[in-house]
Amino acid sequence: MSGARKILIADDSPVVSKMLSMVLRGAGYEVVLATDGIEATQAVYNEMPDLVVLDIFMPRMNGYQVCRLLKHDPAVAHIPVTQPWISILTTRAPARHLLARPARPALAAWSG
Prior knowledge:
By secondary structure, this protein is α/β, with parallel strands linked by helices. The protein has helices at about 15-25, 35-45, 65-70, 105-110, and strands at about 5-10, 30-35, 50-55, 80-85, 95-100.
């Protein structure tokens, strides 16, 4: 899938990861999966995705910590990060966008 925009999905729920990856792959995106915060951080540096969909509650390193780490590193700070839980106080992490579940309508409108 060369040339396809790459999206990293970081979520410890296999159901959520599968649902999001099916929708995104169906829309022509390349998808990279991570199941915890450490994997997500490593995947950002290894894969350099165009977008990170980051769960808040993950093992080893939570989504707030991952987001802060990424946004404080100039090498990856330009990558948009979206956190899918809108019912949580959003002032704890510097994500620029929030993605409500179900995600399909919101993702269809994303243009990068």
